[in-house]
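Milestone M4 deliverable, item 7.
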Amino acid sequence: MIRVRGITKRYGEKKVVDQVDLDLPMNKIVAFIGSNGAGKSTVLSMISRTLSKNEGEVLIDDIELKDWKNEELSKRLAILKQTNHLNIRLTVRELVSFGRYPHSKGKLTAECQRKIDEAIEYLGLTKLQDRYLDELSGGQRQMAYIAMTVAQDTKYIFLDEPLNNLDMRHSVQIMKILRRLVEELGKTVFVVIHDINFVSCYADHVIAMKQGKVVVDGPTGEIMTEDMLKEIYNMDIKIEEIGGDNICLYYK
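Output delivered:
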């Protein structure tokens, strides 16, 4: 379980995250939503220890974040940032193998190879595993990076805007895979996401932020209402059911 108490982030005199408290649910897709500058990515980065906090505490399985050794924390949580730049030419398989570093320290074992094979197959990349990343489309590259986090085989997965600049096909494919990670492998996935249609269809739990504070957090069905979305985004959003459990949200 991950518990967040009073975390704050300041840049000079400006607070970009202000006294955030959260009890994050397990074995679910947890979506962070809100307008640009709301503090979503900053909170995700502080929880995953890729950004220092000025105040507060984060407890990962009852241990404060600062008390975790790097090698042990990297076996507990995997992080995929919004932008990923590599200065070396890698194949898909070579990239995915980086996910095993916390376990192998660069010396891949038979178990590591099995985890790499599983991650590549899970993301549907078997036929592309020997291709170089710069030969792939943006969606295919993003799938490869997600496969790297899957190969890391952690309890928690943190993804910062994984659908950024992707087409509809790859976005749907990635969200379906995240859903499978939760339902089939028992992972807990935290994702910063802007498309609230995807949130409504795939997320279990939503944390809505505004001006560095949590406006509301709870089950997706309770958050995805016209009144609540208006409060979060300061604009009218229309919700229409389009059959079954699927809904369509659009700006009026």
